[in-house]
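Narrative summary of target 7.
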Amino acid sequence: MMSPGIFARTFARPTVEEVLAAAALPGLRCVQFNFACAGLPTLPDRCPEEALLDRIRRAAATHGLAIAAVSGTWNMAHPDPAERAAGLRCLPVLLEAARRLNAPVVTLCTGTRHPANMWIAHPDNKTPAAWADLTATLEPALAAAAREGITLGIEPETANVVGSATQARRLLDEFRGAPLGIVLDPANLLRPGDAHQQQAILDEAFHLLGDRLILAHAKEWDGQGHPDSLAVGEGHLDWAHYLGLLRRAGYEGPVILHGFSEAQAARSVAFLVDRMTRAATDT
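Modeled conformation, tokenized:
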């Protein structure tokens, strides 16, 4: 069965123990962890001390939460080579920490040519140079992941260089056999005005990527974008269709909620757990 989970970073608390206690909402079984929850950068420049890693492991176990993935996002297609190189220097540190937390996946951002924000689109994202810089950055990242036994997850996101399911498939094919998989968030595949064709867009994504899914995300979509103002279930995303596609693809991994405030967390979790239960019994 699929396992409902949540971004640990949804909960701002002074300690990792308090973060993971807050994340243990009824029905949740896992989290996507971010070292910002421990007062460190998302990509630390040195491996966290064993004492901190042990605190994270014990707190997660206390609340029955698996660490499904660790966030490792940086702009892998940044126009400045120094920015790309800085992320590559820190990634092996994060990969070691993820392994020591028994987290099987580290998530990445395929990046944008926008120099200030890796989630904002830029016209140069579609250029061969952007693709070449992304793949040149990804190659050593995958080698480092292989050494630690970690799978890297890339997420097609309309604002990024890998902006569609088709481009994500192309990247998988270029790195065939590497420890690379897909993080699928349906809201990130939809553009303003796609409400009436979202089922077709998701059908295509699962057709192209369903065999390489390693993590599913669950974020609401308002028909225009995915602002942090909607609880899951209060927008226009076709949850029955999405969860049905996951089920038909044979996916049995984590489904990680995010993209809302802490005040909206409990009802978002309740909605997702209810819809997952329905999808599991739908014949």
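Residues 211 and 249 are 7 Å apart (CA to CA).
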